[in-house]
Amino acid sequence: xxxxxxxxxIIIGGGLAGAEAAYQAARYGVDVTLYEMRPIxxxxxxxxxxxxxxxxxNSLRSVFPDTAHGLLKTELTxxxxxxxxxxxxxxxxxxxxxxxxxDEFASFITQKIGDHPRIKxxxxxxxxxxxQPAIIATGPLTSDALTAAIIEVxxxxxxxxxxxxxxxxxxxxxxxxxxYYASRYGKGTDDYLNCPMDEETYNRFYDALIEADRVxxxxxxxxxxxxxxxxxxVMAHRGKETLRFGPLRPVGLPHPKTGEVANAVVQLRAENAxxxxxxxxxxxxxxxxPQQQKVFRLIPGLQEAEFLRYGSIHRNTFxxxxxxxxxxxxxxxSRPNGYIYFAGQLTGVEGYLESTAMGLLAxxxxxxxxxxxxxxxxxxESACGALLDYITSPKVDKFQPSNINFGLLPPxxxxxxxxxxxxxxxxxxxxxxxxxFIAQAHR
Length: 443
Ligand SMILES: Cc1cc2nc3c(=O)[nH]c(=O)nc-3n(C[C@H](O)[C@H](O)[C@H](O)COP(=O)(O)OP(=O)(O)OC[C@H]3O[C@@H](n4cnc5c(N)ncnc54)[C@H](O)[C@@H]3O)c2cc1C
What we know:
alpha/beta, binds flavin-adenine dinucleotide, 443 residues, 2 domains, Elongation Factor Tu (Ef-tu), domain 3, six-stranded antiparallel beta sheet, globular, five-stranded parallel beta sheet
């Protein structure tokens, strides 16, 4: 247990977020003690005792600078991220993605952290929240005892969730000639975009959905989840009509011009007030990502849709960050001997680099508090700032984890019609905003 630790900052969890946070805080000259329970105690998904182990895919997504993940990489690199250093040093050829040799990647991180004069690594499970400044970065598979301790301070009924995430598409890539705004039975405002399917289109879509490859389920991801939040393809396997009486039911959604009721209707719900991104309602899925593209592009209006986020389902643990964290990732509930910060996937971001980004920010914020330096926040025009804003902004109605996507960044003041130029302008603005933050944070 943590007692008599003389370091200025404790970090619990040596995954992507915890390792990044430790590295960033130590750069400030803060003494850090990093607790990692592996290999003494394993999670159901990790296999080694290495810090920064990737639990699943070895891909850190796109390298193209004009994609949301490309932008996140640029920002992390500007901030001298340890995880990005490891990724570049251990990358392997993977087309447009930054993929890594996973063992070399985690070994690089383990060695850098282990060799750092200001970081001490202790292999131990932490079961209580420390009574001194600390960052909790224990990830989606936080151990049961610590989860119980977090539940106690957040007063949440439970922190375990099975994330059932529906895909999100870029509004600019929807064919608006084939879809229409309407809400069922005209109730409320016309907030949904509706994609009508005739019988032939539905049959083609159904057959493709049934045949598509799914991601293999992990042992610890039990089936009981599926009853409460069923993947679209599992529902489809129950019978050809199940979807037409479920999420694709057409009743109450006649076409506003012809009055015709389609055979089936896929509804898209806006992700933000600017309606720049839409999610596919009821389309939580375990289909592999290329299969999602192939099958969901059969939906009228989505034939050229760009996916900002793919659907997924996996076990997760996250806190209701907008309710519990302040603007600097600190637990709002005040504690007598220093702030408790949260970082990584626990904060409700989704993905390797997103977790890293929240580790990086938590490390900077915590170090500045320990050293009694003024705090700065990155603008939400940057990718890291947009993620931070998303998880700490109380304006989100029902908080759900998110990966980075351009839908989280505010629209440009002046709209640019050309899609490529528009993305370039958003990326340029983001990098400038991020550079301002990094200059302030390291002044
Ligand atoms: C099964 C599964 C598959 C996933 N696949 C992908 C994918 O393909 N791509 C992707 O981008 N994201 C994926 N994710 C999400 C992924 O977990 C995160 O993106 C990322 O690893 C989160 O980083 P983190 O630092 O927050 O947590 P982690 O990387 O999980 O690190 C948390 C660390 O805390 C340690 N720990 C836990 N409890 C304690 C304790 N009480 N005391 C001390 N140490 C503790 C753990 O051992 C672990 O090392 C997946 C998640 C799961 C669960």
